[in-house]
Write a structure and sequence with these properties.
globular, alpha+beta, 352 residues, Ribosomal Protein S5, domain 2, eight-stranded mixed beta sheet, 41% helix
Length: 352
């Protein structure tokens, strides 16, 4: 029997990140601009003969968990992946689920959201379930937010499911509308060429930061609410700029989004990112910390003729530099040769 494999892209969020999360998104309405990039998370599912149990393994963490059946999975190890198995795998099924990622944890690129989408897609492929991209995004986000209780929004799931450059509008009272932005080919090439993701190795824990923002949001005289409004406005302005080919407008809103992000909560700020920006100032026109902030990756927009110099300088500072190319496919699935019995037994024994 063939195993089912899937791949989902991570994302850069140049504007509006944070306004997709309740209570702001529900009370005020939010807007996010993000684009999926060619760095991915992967999942594979082998359906096994009855009696082989359930095994979940993370290649990145080099840890796993195994049990005779779904309900017997012990909590406290790979709980994120377990939640998807508990929701989507029938109790009497035996499977092997393996995951891996192109990006480090805490990079601020929506890796956990993309992982959830990839796992849903791999399990759906294995069990013959058909879902649209929006259905895949919604169930992946629902498991993360409701089943696991993790705070945050849904932009990561949508970027991973759809790919491309997205505008997400969150309506007051709930609900989200997705629209793919339409850029001219010249604008798209310019955006890709001049954009770089720099990973500073200062990983963050987005769930903790989302909780900080949530706590601050309800406090009297908090700057969080005003910063949220600024982030939403910047996202709407950025969408117009990109579709008009106005890269100066894009850059201005990228910088505004970064400063507004830092005002959400002190934990969103990043000393390391500020230092990188000072040292790279002569080479970049715009920058923004990715995701919830507090470290990890940041996206920069280079000055004309400075791209290569910026890459070299960022590496001198100790950063990993990833040139940006966009993924317009979103999550994809395919069949592959099944995991060998020897490898399965090796993985399973390492989980004990």
């Amino acid at each position: 029997m063939l195993k089912s494999c899937s791949r989902a892209p991570v994302r850069v969020d140049p504007a509006g990140g944070g306004t997709d999360a309740p209570p702001f998104s529900v009370e005020q309405g939010g807007t996010v601009i993000n684009f999926a990039i060619n760095r991915h998370v992967f999942a594979s599912v082998d359906r096994l003969a009855a009696g082989n149990g359930v095994t979940i393994y993370s290649e990145d963490l080099q840890i796993g968990v195994t049990a005779d059946k779904v309900s017997g999975l012990p909590k406290g190890r790979l709980d994120f992946l377990q939640a998807f198995v508990r929701r989507l795998v029938p109790e009497d099924e035996s499977i092997l689920l393996v995951t891996e990622s192109d990006v480090p944890a805490g990079a601020g690129l929506g890796g956990s959201g993309a992982l959830g989408v990839a796992v849903v897609a791999a399990l759906d492929h294995a069990f013959g379930q058909k879902r649209t991209p929006i259905e895949t995004a919604r169930i992946a986000n629902e498991i993360e937010r409701k089943d696991l209780g993790y705070p945050g929004g849904s932009q990561d799931s949508f970027a991973a499911a759809f790919g491309g450059i997205n505008k997400l509008d969150y309506a007051k009272g709930g609900g989200v509308a997705h629209r793919a932005l339409k850029l001219s080919n010249d604008t798209l090439m310019e955006l890709e060429y001049n954009s770089l993701v720099i990973y500073t190795s200062e990983a963050h824990v987005s769930g903790n930061i989302h909780q900080d923002i949530l706590d601050s949001y309800g406090m009297k005289d908090s700057k969080t609410f005003t910063a949220m409004l600024s982030l939403r406005d910047a996202a709407n302005s950025m969408a117009m700029a990109l579709e008009c080919g106005d890269m100066e407008g894009y850059i201005n809103n990228l910088n505004l989004s970064c400063e507004s992000l830092y005002l959400l909560h002190t934990s969103c700020d990043s000393i390391a990112h500020r230092k990188y920006c000072r040292d790279l100032e002569e080479h970049i026109l715009g920058r923004k910390t990715c995701g919830a902030g507090g470290g990890g990756g940041m996206v920069v927009y280079t000055r004309s003729g400075h791209r290569r110099t910026c890459i070299l300088r960022a590496r001198e500072l100790g950063g990993e530099v990833w040139p940006v190319t966009l993924d317009f496919n979103g999550v994809v699935s395919w069949p592959e040769k099944s995991t060998s019995k020897d490898l399965f037994e090796k993985i399973k024994s390492s989980c004990r």
